[in-house]
Amino acid sequence: MSIIHTDRWLEEDYHQPLNISKKLLKYFEDVTAAELYDYLIMHGMYRPVRDGKGTVEKLKTLDCWNIVLAEWKRLKKLWNGPDIPIFIFPSDKYNNQIKRDFKGKAGVAFKDKLFLFLPEDIEVNEMKALLTHEYNHICVLSKNNRKDDQYTLLDSVLIEGLAESAVKSVVGKEYTSSWTSYYTDKELETFLNNFIIPNKEVKKSEKDHMKLLYGKGFYPKMLGYCVGYYLIQKILKEKKITYRALMSKSLSEIAKLSFE
After folding, report:
1. In terms of Cα–Cα distance, which of 178, 1, 181, 207 is closest to 87?
2. Which of 68, 90, 136, 236 could form a disulfide with 166 if both were Cys (CB 3.0 to 4.6 A apart)?
3. Residue 230 near residue 236, CB atoms below 8 Å
4. Among 176, 181, 183, 178, which Cα is nearest to 162's?
5. Do 7 and 65 touch, CB atoms closer than 8 A?
6. pLDDT tens across 141-183, in order?
7. Which H or E element spans position 2?
8. Torsion (CA) 86, 90, 95, 96 in degrees, nearest 10
């Protein structure tokens, strides 16, 4: 199915995002248009602004839809990944966390679909980095094939580490997110032992899961993401395994490699 022509949706309904949300409902179950839009906003989707149509035109001029399509085909072949619909929308330019931690771009991956939220001035390689990170999630989820509530904090930490390590492997280290360099290895080892390992079985449905993963409250910011990237990079270095070979393993196998 691949790229959905959301550029046409945006031309018609940029200022009526609930109309866009209604078009998305056929890809979801048991959700209203308003609930879906709220969920997507939480993950970085745009909120209408007066000059927003200009952002849409800039993204079209950058040829974002065709660039993402071509790169997705390459990644699909590289990882033997699934065929899924991909939706592209502008990102929320007023979301400070996205600007600080993700260079203005954001995305959200489901098992069977993918959303990319792009700033109007995004570079081609930044676009590829976002797609690589999010599509990697889908490839990992499709291979492990568990229900959402079966994923633990350690699973999520490894999933995020795999995704950002994919960016380093496929696009280049300079296009990894800024959070990959927030802490030293010594700090990350301490975080792993003090925060992640004691809570490694916390399920995705439990409130502490997201607090630990994103580093909310009193936890170090982007805690789970940073520890995940550290663990995957450590495996690649110490086990002398290629990223592609690591991707062929299950999360359980990768977890064992993390603590050998």
Report:
1. 1
2. 136
3. no
4. 176
5. yes
6. 988 878 888 899 999 999 999 999 999 999 999 999 999 999 9
7. strand 2-3
8. 90
| Domain spans in the chain, listed from the N-terminal domain onward | 2-144, 148-258
CB 72 within 8 A of CB 135: yes
Interval 100-109: pLDDT, tens: 888 889 999 9
Helix residue ranges, H only, 118-222 = 124-144, 153-170, 185-191, 207-214
How many Å from the N-terminal Cα to the C-terminal Cα in the chain?
A: 41
Band of residue 1 on the pLDDT scale cut at 50, 70, 90: low
Residue with tokens 């930044």: 126
Tell me if the pTM is above 0.90: yes
Q: How far is CA 23 from CA 50, 58, 68, 104, 108, in A?
A: 23, 23, 21, 25, 18
